[in-house]
Design goal:
Elements (H helix, E strand, L loop, with lengths): L2 E14 L2 E9 L2 E3 L3 E5 L6 H8 L7 E6 L2 E2 L5 H11 E5 L10 H11 L6 H11 L15 H13 L5 E5 L7 H18 L2 E6 L10 E6 L2 E5 L1
Parallel strand pairs: 4-9, 4-10, 7-8, 8-9
Antiparallel strand pairs: 1-2, 1-3, 1-5, 5-6, 10-11
Helix pairs in contact: 3-4, 3-5, 4-5
């Protein structure tokens, strides 16, 4: 199996008033290309810290992080920012859509930020169709349900064709059925579009939908399959 991201001995230490706090300890994970990888764990387990390191939002205190065989832990911030802008997409629990822009305009705006060279409107519509929202393209965020807003956020995140999509607790604010539909959409994106997705969750019911599942507890990897 081909891997797009791999870590070796990753650890992350934060300085606190009470001393050093090791949020991650000696983590080795591999993210298979074109698959759905789930990072599972309770609040404080270290899963979001790990996702931030995998997505080049943060650097490890120790260890190596390879993105397509390049150690991004050693890159300067300029190169890391370019990597995030051009090759990575992010979806967070807080969708952060621009309220005065329609669903279509939100996706188009993201394409402008990534300097997309093609027809931005056509690509934005293509992505909204991909997430089942082509009929809601001209609606403002407040006219959409929570699940629909999250789907717009996903369309926005994949519009520039990133190599990896990171989703941090994307179902956390959704009811069970809507959350399950969201993860099934991720499955469609991996199976149909070949998108690599890394998702964090604390929901045990979603684990069976992942191609690979890593479980963290207290900053340590306790399970991986």
């Amino acid at each position: 199996m081909e891997y797009i991201i791999k870590t070796e001995g990753v650890a992350r230490c934060f300085k606190t008033q009470g001393g050093d706090f090791w949020a991650l300890k000696d983590i080795d994970v591999e993210v298979p290309k074109g698959k759905l990888t789930i990072l599972r764990g309770r609040s404080g387990s270290g899963k979001t810290t790990l996702m931030n390191i995998l997505g080049a939002l943060d650097k490890p205190t120790k260890g190596k992080v390879f993105f397509e065989k390049k150690n991004i832990a050693r890159m300067d911030e300029h190169r890391r920012a370019k990597l995030r802008r051009m090759q990575i997409g992010f979806v967070f629990q807080s969708v952060a859509l621009i309220p005065m822009m329609s669903a279509l305009e939100n996706v188009e705006y993201a394409l402008r930020l990534t300097r997309y060279k093609g027809d931005r409107t056509a690509r934005a519509m293509e992505c909204l169709k991909l997430v089942g929202l082509s009929q809601r393209a001209n609606h403002l965020p407040q006219e959409l349900s929570g699940g629909e807003q999250q789907r717009v956020a996903i369309a926005r995140a994949v519009a520039h064709r990133p190599k990896v999509l990171f989703a941090d607790e994307p179902t956390g604010a959704l009811d069970t059925n809507t959350g399950l539909a969201m993860v099934k959409l991720f499955r469609e994106l991996t199976d149909g579009e070949g998108v690599t997705i890394v998702m964090t969750t604390h929901d045990t019911d979603l684990m069976e939908l992942g191609d690979r599942v890593y479980e963290l507890e207290g900053g340590e990897l306790v399970h991986g399959e």
